[in-house]
Amino acid sequence: MVEGDSDLNRDNALLAARDRFEGPIWALISELEGTLADFARVRHVDLGNPRATGSVLNGALTEAAVAAKLSDHGLSINYCENGQSNKIFGELGIDGKAFTVCFELHLAGPRGGTSKAAHQFAAYDIESEPSLPGFEVEAPSDLLFFIACHLSGTGASVARTFLKFADKVDQRKIEIHRELPGDATGVAEPAPVDGPSGTKMTLKKERGDEFKHGGKTDKRGDAASSS
Fold it and tell me: What is the chain's alpha carbon radius of gyration, rounded to the nearest angstrom?
């Protein structure tokens, strides 16, 4: 299978991913909220800097995953040298087929976040220098997702979270929510709707991403180790 395979129902993929991984992902986020709370107490720290915050969360991901018992749900954390970041790997069944799935933590939302348009993996993420050492290794092409975290107003907790396709084929996403909002450290939000959102298709471009203001993404600059 290749990214954007027409045989894959992408709405079903989002629904299946939420059904399978919603609980463990929020357990992981709850652990990372403890990291955010501690980070907020560090002298002179600017919680409005998404790259700094994202780097801290990326560094905490391995131990947070152990505390959240992700392995009990078939998820593992792998450090990827080519992106200098931690990724979450697992398997997912969709419409009777088994897929490899890879999640990457991403800061998003009204407070701002990193501007990466796609998973930090493989040659096409580094447009200007595709031959950088280590970028010959491809990510699992089956399913690439962002765990898109919207921070609360204080920046020390996660208000909302989405699973979002991160393979540059389209912008579909689906909201996930906490199983026990009353026991969570963050801000409780209403439960998500049943269906995916953001389903407008966006075709993948060969070289860079154009934005309405006329600029292009700098793939190297956008490839923060965290997000």
Answer: 17
